[in-house]
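# nightly structure sweep
# worker-07 picked up a monomer target from the shared queue
# config: single-sequence mode, recycle default, output format = structure tokens
# input follows
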Amino acid sequence: MRPVPGAFDLNDLTTFVRVVDGGGFAAAARTFGVPKSTLSRRVAGLEARLGAKLLRRSTRAVGLTDVGRAYYERCVRILGEVEDANAAVGRARAAPRGRVRVTAAAAVSGALLGPVLAEFLERHREVSVEVVARDRLVDLAKEGFDLALRLGPPQGEAALSSRTIVRLRTLLCASPAYLEAHGAPASPADLRAHRCIAFGTPPRALTWALTRGDEQAAVKVSARLATNDASVAHQAALRGLGVAALPSFLYAEGVGRGALRPVLEGWQMQGAVLRAVYPGGTRAPAAVRALVAALVARVPAYVTPA
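# output follows
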């Protein structure tokens, strides 16, 4: 695929990132309020100008090619820098101060938010942070929160600003007790005979698209449990309910202490996106913007990105 001459537009990069974050063109089209065909043409034009295929398209979902994954990560950084630059120009940046109320699922706040806070609060002495673990979707305005950390696709966030913190790898694992009782799958096709725990948004989560290098496998699994809450999937795996697809930080925690064992090592699924969601965009308080910037800069160091 040869590159096609043409100017690159930041809007096309934004479209590409939103399509990936939303898991397909439908969610991104709802966010932008335009037809799916419009976004598909934008991404196709971007691929033509680059001379490379960025997405694998199917009737169910889209996935990143290896080139697309590397390009996505750079686009996320570029767009984040543009947002920061716009904020700097659009508003005099007062020193961060005041209280920031943050909500996140318990698993996320403990594993990913906690390690960042000590350094952040040491650097910003006039900021205080209140973290409330909530394993449900929180209405920020009604419940008085400044910031939410959410894992997975956008949910009812049209009026909020959203910034990608990191895209996580999704890996397979199961408890020792489950594997002793049911055996371990030797290939992706063997998953059809196993109980599975699907993290994602059903029904798409019931077909697992796995990759290992250039190999690909799409397996329709029988999900004893399907959930968009990573902590629910994690707890179910620990209790031996089945083979679970978990974000890499939960996988690493369970495998590291021997409570979970790897399944089909080397294979992985398209990773879940960890996002910061907050009202106000560039008009958000300086303390909120500073904490979001710290999360974007530091969280990838604590996880293995996709």
